[in-house]
Amino acid sequence: MCVKDLLGMQVLDKDAKEIEKVEDADFNENTGQIEKYLFL
């Protein structure tokens, strides 16, 4: 998945209701893993 695809994605709760959208994400430079999300 590309970062541009991740930004703006819906965040759903356990009942599949939209609660937020992904605004930004912090990545580990060495591993490429996502460390933090920022929600709008």
Please characterize this protein's 3D structure.
The protein has a three-stranded antiparallel beta sheet, with no helix packed on it. It has one helix at 3-6, and strands spanning 10-12, 18-27, 34-39. The mean pLDDT is 91. The protein has one domain (3-39). The protein is mainly beta and 40 residues long.
Give a brief description.
With 40 residues, the chain is mainly β.
Task: Provide the fold topology.
Blueprint: H1 3-6, E1 10-12, E2 18-27, E3 34-39
Antiparallel strand pairs: 1-2, 2-3
Features of this protein?
single chain, 40 residues, mainly beta, three-stranded antiparallel beta sheet, 48% strand, elongated
Order of helices and strands: HEEE
Order of adjacent strands in the largest pleated sheet: 1-2-3
Cα distance spanning the termini: 20 Å
Helices, by number, come to 1
